Amino acid sequence: MRSTLIRAVLVAVLSITTTIGLMSSGVATASTPVTSTTELNVRAKPSTSAKIVGALHRGQTVKSTSESNGWTKITFKGKTAYVSSRYVTKGEDQPAGDDVGKGETRTTTTQVNLREGPGLTEDVITVLDEGTEVTQTGKTSKGWTEVTVDSENGWVSTQYLTDAKDGLPEVTGTRKATADLSVRATSDEDSKVIGLARKGSKVSITGTTKNSRAQIIYDGAVGWVLAKYLSNGDTDEPTAPPLPAVTGSRYATADLTIRTTSGSDFKDLGDIPEGTKLSITGVTENKRAQIIWDGAVRWVTAQYLSKTKPSSGGGSTAGSTKGLKPNGVKVLNAVRKNFPQIKTIGTVRPDALPDHPSGRALDLMIPNYKSKAGKQLGHNLSRWLQKNQKDLGINYIIWDQHIWNVQRSSQGWRSMASRGSDSANHKNHVHVTVLAKGYAPI
After folding, report:
1. Which long-range contacts (CB under 8 A, 24 or more apart) does 243-246 make?
2. From the CB of residue 189, how many other CB atoms can be counted at a distance below 10 Å?
3. How many domains does the chain have?
4. Highest averaged pLDDT of the listed ranges 47-51, 334-338, 365-369, 421-425
5. 149: β partners
6. Residue 186 covered by a domain
């Protein structure tokens, strides 16, 4: 009797255990491996406006638990996150090298180099303007995407491409303006002002910064504002201090370094060319003059300021060879010899694009560039450089809103979209970028 009772109890316990096990397995969420087919943003929520918490490299496999409305729920660094279902495949097999979005059209979110290969050391074929439509070939490599533009294949950094149908980059978050901010058409300091973001207003950011400006979506278009006056919204950052009153203007009589302070602890913000008009406050310290530049207080060497604009024969620098690549030195010496009327040559300087900082670029400033003689000089210089590109190791030349490069030489001088100012459109100088192959990597 006792053994019969024990057996009954054991059967009951086993039955309950089995039922619990079946119930547990019924609510467990099955995970499926998925593999990224390209460099892919990982977001906190299933939305293109959600915060980016990381990225998947092409071929990286993660566990997914569900898929809904075009978004795949994954486990990323131990937490729940989301990726676009469009760019992942089920399984752990790495996608074929020529299958990633082949034939799809994407748009550049800012000015970007089109290069011969996937990397910053590759030569530049041309510079693509913001909003340029490109077609993917299907090939990607470690953050680079191969595209076709005007029947020419090249590589661009994937982070500067968007598949948005309206051509606008994805919004990655919002920020609050801590001062009244001018919204400009491009990141250039003299770019056209297209609007005003009032103090306290919220702006939609894309995560792209250039020339100390943040890219935003403003009134259905891309705009740029000074990044330092944007708050993350969690805490109120100090508002911008009032700027000193402008008391007049002066012209630079030589290339001048823009400094953050008047002392020896200054940060070099780059050079401005001879003839640049500057707004002064009347304050001088340590032989430096205080100016208002790019919406902030800056300093320049006072002795090189004049009330009158310098003539084309005024004193200036003929370019420094410090940090310049061998091919750049070739161009510099050749221009000095054959075009002595070129008094100002910009070489190595800070810039968002790598050409100038790496010592591969020169800006040949044209004196009195708006005059008939100035325009003819720019034309003659640009064509002479084109004719001697092989001996000088030139990669591409930009003059008067037109570009010519070695890789597309059969197409001649190609028109470029307007970028705003005469300087941005290369009307006051001839830009030259030399080949880097055979020299130290950038």
Report:
1. 243/292, 243/295, 243/296, 243/297, 244/281, 244/283, 244/290, 244/292, 244/297, 245/281, 246/279, 246/280, 246/281, 246/292
2. 17
3. 5
4. 334-338
5. 152
6. yes
Nearest residue to 151 (alpha-carbon basis) of 398, 411, 406? 411
Q: Which domain holds residue 275?
A: 248-306
Q: Is the dihedral of CA 127, 130, 132, 133 positive or negative?
A: positive
- Cα gap 193→196, rounded to integer Å: 8
* CA nearest neighbour of 315 among 330, 304, 331: 304
Tell whether 412 and 358 lie within a shared domain.
yes
In a domain, 351, yes or no: yes
Q: Give the CATH number for residue 272.
A: 2.30.30.40
Which single residue is written with the structure tokens 């996150």?
81
Distance CA 156, CA 119 (A): 9
Q: How many CB atoms lie within 10 A of CB 283?
A: 14
Phi-psi region at 101: left, alpha or beta (left = phi > 0; alpha = psi -120 to 50): left
pLDDT tens digits along 6-63: 555 444 444 444 444 444 333 445 678 888 776 677 888 888 777 778 777 666 788 8
Q: Would you state the structure tokens that stand for residue 411, as one six-digit string?
A: 């197409």
Please state, in angstroms and as integers, the Cα–Cα distance from residue 63 to each residue in 44, 69, 124, 225, 226, following that order: 16, 18, 39, 39, 40
Those residues with Cβ within 8 angstroms of residue 25's Cβ, 6 or more apart along the chain or in another chain: none
CB under 8 Å to 18, separation ≥6 — which residues? none
Give pTM, 2 decimals. 0.36
